[in-house]
């Protein structure tokens, strides 16, 4: 899923700055949540039309930066916990297919307990 060279670049960036000492799983998870909240702020109080306008403005780079921050912390967390992100996603999709059978959920947004 993530390019291994990019992952190594991220890990080397962190290592060179001696930040591993601060990057406990708890603190990375907290940082991941904070960055995800900053991502939400990009959309907060915006209409769909305003979001589309922002996507085609200089504000798009801010969105890309927030998405990158979320991804970097997720990559660090998976690396530090020995989780293969691609495999975790594949395993989750198997569960999702069972939890959300196509014939029951297509075109619906109900919670799985509602059907």
TrEMBL record:
One GO MF term: nucleoside triphosphate diphosphatase activity
Q: Which Gene3D superfamilies match?
A: MazG-like
Its BP terms in the Gene Ontology are: nucleoside triphosphate catabolic process
Q: InterPro entries of this UniProt entry?
A: dCTP_Pyrophosphatase (IPR052555), DCTPP (IPR025984)
Tell me where on the tree of life, at the top rank, the source sits.
Answer: Bacteria
What Pfam families does UniProt report for this protein, alphabetically? MazG-like
User: What protein is this chain from?
Assistant: Nucleotide pyrophosphohydrolase
Q: Which organism is it from?
A: Methylophaga aminisulfidivorans
Its organism's taxonomic lineage begins at: Bacteria, Pseudomonadati, Pseudomonadota, Gammaproteobacteria, Thiotrichales
């Amino acid at each position: 899923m993530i390019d291994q060279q990019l992952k190594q670049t991220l890990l080397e960036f962190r290592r060179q700055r001696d930040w591993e000492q601060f990057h406990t799983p708890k603190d990375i998870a907290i940082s991941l949540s904070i960055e995800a909240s900053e991502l939400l702020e990009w959309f907060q109080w915006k209409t769909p039309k305003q979001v589309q306008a922002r996507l085609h403005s200089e504000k798009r780079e801010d969105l890309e930066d927030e998405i990158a921050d979320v991804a970097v912390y997720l990559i660090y967390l998976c690396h530090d916990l020995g989780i293969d992100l691609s495999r975790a996603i594949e395993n989750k999709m198997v569960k999702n297919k069972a939890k959300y059978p196509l014939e029951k959920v297509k075109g619906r947004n109900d919670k799985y307990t509602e059907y």
